[in-house]
Amino acid sequence: MVRRAVRADAPQILDLVAQYATQGLMLSRRLDEIAARIDNYVVATDGTGRVIACAALEEYSPSLAEVSSVAVAPAHHGRGLGSQVVLGIERLARARDIEELFALSLTDNFFLSLSYKPTTVSRYPEKLARYETLTRSGVEIVPKRCFQKALGRSWPTPQLVEQALTVRQKVG
Hints:
This protein has 172 residues and is α+β, with helices and mostly antiparallel strands. It is built from 6 helices and 7 strands. The chain has helices at 10-21, 31-36, 81-95, 109-113, 125-136, 161-171; strands at residues 2-4, 41-45, 51-61, 64-72, 100-105, 117-119, 145-150. A 7-stranded mixed β-sheet has the order 1-2-3-4-5-7-6. Strand 4, helix 3 (81-95) and strand 5 form a beta-alpha-beta unit. The two termini are 23 Å apart. Residues 161-172 have low confidence and may be disordered.
């Protein structure tokens, strides 16, 4: 199930993100940071309620935000959960009238498959300023590719993979 995160999810989000942060694949987060921004997270849970995927919306201005902290538990890779939590973030951004999203990734295919377009991080001085602050504090920033998606006024609300499959099963 994909849903907005609640405060009780914060420790599980931290554990999930930490798996990738220790490998240098994403920026680390602290529990207090996640808890303070819990309204910006979307999670996917398994049948027991355990968080198995997450993503966050980092707002830079009223019209610009970053899709960040996209993580899926390794045992659940290949099931479309990353796409589902990103689509959840897009719905959240749309509800907040955010017009443009960007994301940084080590691979091209994931965000391209979600209709993001390649761009350069230099378009986002807010992100560059954050990277500069982190670098000065000793955090190593791994270079990543940048992708952008304009949500615009005519952007249709995406269906979750699970919902699309249910519709196809009813039709078929």
